[in-house]
Amino acid sequence: MPVQGPIHVDRPLTNISIAYKAEGLIADEVFTVVPVKKESDSYFIFDKAQSLKSVATLRADGAEANQDNLLLSTATYRLQEHALKEIITQRQRENADEGLNLDVATTEDLTAKVLLQKEVDAATLLFTDGGWANESSLSAALAWSANTTVSNPILTADSAASTVLLNAARPANTCVLDYRTFLAVKEHTSVVDRIKYTSSESVGPDLIAKLFGVEKLHVAKGQRNTAEEGLAATMANIFTDSAWFGYVEKSPGLRKPSALYCFKRGSGVTAKRWMDEPRNGEWIEVSHMYDQVVPASDAGYLVVNTVQ
After folding, report:
1. How far apart are CA 148 and CA 151, in angstroms?
2. The whole model's pTM is what?
3. N or C: which end of the chain has fewer CB within 10 A?
């Protein structure tokens, strides 16, 4: 006789759950961190024109040395705090199913959202047309997605690197591509033809970095939901179709220009918790204080409309 009635009551699994968070975030990889103690302060900028000016140095016997002048200015940073919090009530704890660690899940979710906003801030600085001293916009025929002999990302990279070297007296050592641009580059005929007889490596970020003449290539893959609260998700890439080349100082110090810095106090994202007796719950809050800046706009080069 068949079993009558349900033999299994659905309940959440304890070894699997589904959650979404942005992957491929690059802000913390691209922006060199400068630890600071104060929320705001200033730093010196040596005048580029004066520092790189070729002056007469020849001195005749018995004559005084020619005089030179050191020109300085200052710029400022101001840390801003980015924070989110959520409350876990005692009733939620008591009713939570096994395997759902509310504390961990809440902390990870808040942290992911704080870092997502940091990525959005980085994309705005890096890929905003008009934000850099050196920029170019590709026509449809020259776009890397065209994949023709007319379009050539390697030549564009060489031109960008030469411009950075000329204007900042530093070689471009960093490149940032959005994911769509990366896909276009790795399949581009100029790239494939360059390596097909000389390398058995698959075309990845490291190989493209070599072809572009930079130390590190970062591929931005992050996405975000741009819809209003409560509406169906509208997904969009955080970084648009562009390529950025520049010199980023990896060891910040005196008299070292850099296209990008991230001033930060403390160890990064911090989490704290406290009881809320009137609401019979416990708050979890994560926060991060930073300021992403462009100390030397002429040390970067932005190429827009790479994919059309």
Report:
1. 5
2. 0.86
3. N
Q: How far is CA 297 from the centre of its chain?
A: 16
Q: DSSP 3-state assignment of 108?
A: helix
In sequence order, the 6+-apart residues with CB closer than 8 A to the CB of 66 are 55, 56, 57, 59
Identify the pLDDT of residue 200: 60
- C-alpha 284/C-alpha 102 separation (Å) is 10
Distance CA 224, CA 239 (A): 10
Q: What is the pLDDT of residue 87?
A: 95
pLDDT tens digit sequence for 165-223: 999 999 999 999 999 999 999 999 999 998 877 666 678 999 999 999 999 999 999 99
| pLDDT for res 22 | 66
**Pairwise CA distance, residues 156 & 196, whole Å:** 20
CA 267 to CA 270: how far, in whole Å?
8
CATH architecture entry for 27-51+69-304: Alpha-Beta Complex (3.90)
In angstroms, the CA 279 to CA 257 distance is: 51
CB-based contacts of 73, cutoff 8 Å, min separation 6: 44, 45, 47
Number of residues assigned to the chain: 308
> Which amino acid, 213?
G
Residues of the chain with pLDDT under 70: 1-22, 198-201
Q: Where are the domains of the chain?
A: 27-51+69-304
How far apart CA 105 and CA 99 sit, in angstroms, is: 11
Three-class DSSP category at 286 = strand
Q: Is 19 helix (H, G, I), strand (E, B) or coil?
A: coil
Which of these, 157, 153, 158, lies nearest to 190 by C-alpha position?
Answer: 153
